[in-house]
Amino acid sequence: MTKIFKSALLVATAAASFAAIPALADSSVLVVDFDQVFQNSAAAKSGTQQLRAKYDSQLSARRTAFQTAAQAYNTQVESAKKVAKPGTPIPAATQTALQQAGERAQAAEQSLQDIQQEVNQVAAYVRQQIIEHAGPVAEQIRAERKAAIVMSKDATLASDPAGDVTTTLVQRLDAAFPTPSIVPPQQGAAPAGTAPAPATKATQGR
User: What is the pTM (predicted TM-score) of this model?
Assistant: First the structure.
């Protein structure tokens, strides 16, 4: 779980940064190590703690259920091998038991995959929030330093350590955004604070 936040910025962000390099050859450039932001910021640590509190027990239970179901299926396979005879069908009861064990193993595996996918989606939402809140902080630092741009360190081949503002960004981000949400908004839901559209009367034809 602690590795969830050790990822780079979105590919599009990195690509945009690369594209800007030639035009900024003579301008000051600041960099941020987002691997460190996703690991050391208060928001990242809070997100990790919230994810562990919500999902660790569920993941453990579903892993155990899958392992138990897989072991039971393997046991049924071995039993079927023992009763199988050349040219003779496996007894119906053995076939039924084998099929049922296989279905239980598949169901347990799917259940584990579902919870793992949910964890990944929630972790991605936490990262998204961190990036969104880091943007204004980075802009503030850029303006103060009178730099041309703030880039992700992963989007550079080399950079001057003096231009690394990761520590400053993390400190300010911690103050501005210490706790992310781990409840992604529902697709199609209206943003918070958005009032519903007023009803309109149908225009009567003349």
Answer: 0.75
